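Let us work through a complete example step by step.
Step 1: write down the sequence.
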Amino acid sequence: MKESEKQSRILEREKLIEEVKKLTLFDDVFMSAVLEDIPACQHVLRILTGISDLSIRTVKSQYHITKLVSKRSRLDIFAESTDNQIYIIEVQKEDKENHSKRVRYYRAMADSELLRRGESYEKLPECFLFYISQTDIWDRGSTIYPVYKYLGNTGEEYEDGQHIIFVNAEVDDYTEIAELMKYFKTADPEDDSQGALSKRVKFLKGEKKGLDIMSNFGERMEKRGEERGEKRAERRLILGLLKAGAEISLIKEASGLSEEEIEEISKKSELQEI
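Step 2: predict the structure and record it as tokens.
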């Protein structure tokens, strides 16, 4: 390797280290890289749920919902416990959102993925959605806002297996969750207060293997975004051809897709318009 190439790689590495040091758990890519680690994710969920012995079996970050053809059909963190309950974590950095509608959309995405075609609704597992924001979006002075539903004016809670919990990092009410949110805002590798979560952050920000993961993770996310962009463009082209009255055989030849795949794209588009 030439000396100039070696120096260039050293500079790139130093730049990566500096960039990673600045990241917090409100940064999408870093949060995903941290929480796809089961012990780190389990630590966060134990605090958020208050279940000290919660055991997480699997974690998927930036989980793509395969049944939907939407502009954002993915969930930040999709975890399953050993007792088959589902935990979703969505982190929202921006404050210019219709948060209620966004959460409604996440719930619909989750249910569409959890229930297989032909299965009974009884098969739907309990699902806990934690929507974490930097600011107190409800401006009521609490760190956490569980959403409760009631049957008319009976005072009886309506149970459908869906649990929505809003959490924010702005209000400090001196609870364990508030302390966790303080850590989300800094992700300081020198702060060991958050157990397995701190350990994962320190690994990704300070160790060679961790920095390699961050480098690869960023590239992976970028590539995934490009691939999805290409797929969306392909779908738009196919839908445009269908609306223009083009024959399936012609679209099949032009796109390389099977007749079944083209019909599936058409059906999904019709469902979204309903």
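Step 3: interpret the result. The two ends are 59 Å apart (CA to CA).
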